[in-house]
Amino acid sequence: MIRFARRLALQTAGAVLLAASLPLAAVAGQADDDYIAARDKAVAALAAAEKAGANPDDLYKRDETALAALEKRMVALLGPLTFKGLNAPPTFSPGTLLDGQIESGEPDGLRFSDADFTTRLLVSPEPVFTSWLAGRAKEENAPPALTGGIKAAMETDLFYTYAISSDAAFAIYAQLPVASAEGETAYAALGLFSQDVAANQVPDSIVITRIASGRVIIGTSEAKVAIKSIPACDQVWKTYAAKAKTLRVAAQKSKKDDDPRWDDASRAEDEGSAAYRACFAREVKTQPFFAAAVARAEALLQTARGN
């Protein structure tokens, strides 16, 4: 027993010395891998318990226990974080590990927000976030850009719908040219969170992505800019809207629920919404509100850099 205790002490001391001699990136990388492995193990255990017919209350308790353990790991991975005007302590993401629940698809990280939830940040270790993104990229109908990593994905609508939305789909209207600091990758866009076809609604939200120091930060805030409709783009939308209306009138006269013109009408609206946004992206730089929107994005990016 004494020999065993001495051997264990020597092994522990050796491990400490090895860790001390490794580059910080190597130590952090192992911690990231350990988190991902622990998360995957917890998800698998819950799925197995659910498949075996576990009592729902028991499942929820197991879920809460697993989330608490992962949150401790995440806090250790990210270290102390403060963001001006945002809450402390943050909340852990995902909201559940139970498959099939809405919050189970959320990225792993810590969420910060202001008091009225109009400004929000998600912070995640880059390797952990990359692992989550790779999982979402495998889902049916996922855009090809999601398979290209964070830098490719951050310019897509679905990226922000998945990462920072609150039960609404995000649509990008225009990229905002923010300046990246040294060693930082930054992206910003003006867009709209909506639960319906965006049509010719003007955008009202800013989103940003920041990659730096081994962390990924996804953020959103209300634009708080007087964004006005662009007449040329409204006209683009009206053309598609008229087409959709004509198709619906014809489908209604047929009195057939399976009339293909119902789907054609919806498709026309989707195409019109996309065409409106494409027009907006072309015209927005000449609009008087554009500079103010860029300034709002720069401010949100500065908040994401932390205190």
List its traits.
signal, disordered N terminus, alpha+beta, TAT_signal, 307 residues
Number of domains: 2
Count of β-strands: 7
- Which sequence of strands runs across the widest sheet? 1-2-3-7-6-5-4
Gyration radius, in Å: 24 Å
Morphology call:
globular
Task: List low-pLDDT spans.
Answer: 1-27
Strand/helix succession: HHHEEEHHHEEEEHHH
Number of helices: 9
Biggest sheet: strands, sense, closure?
7 strands, antiparallel
Structural class: alpha+beta
Residue-averaged pLDDT, rounded?
Answer: 89
How helical, in percent, are the residues? 40-55%
Instruction: State the end-to-end CA separation.
Output: 51 Å
How much of the sequence lies in strands comes to 15-25%
Describe this structure in a few short sentences:
With 307 residues, the chain is an alpha+beta fold. It contains nine helices and seven strands; from the N terminus they run αααβββαααββββααα.
How does this model look, in words?
This protein is an alpha+beta fold and 307 residues long. It folds into 2 domains: 24-227 and 293-304, no CATH class; 231-286. Helix content is 51%, strand content 16%. It is built from 9 helices and 7 strands, in the order αααβββαααββββααα. It has a 7-stranded antiparallel β-sheet with strand order 1-2-3-7-6-5-4. Helix 2 (24-51) runs antiparallel to helix 3 and helix 7 packs antiparallel against helix 8. The longest helix has 28 residues, at 24-51. The protein is globular. Mean pLDDT is 89; it is low at 1-27. Keywords: Signal. Residues 1-25 form the signal peptide.
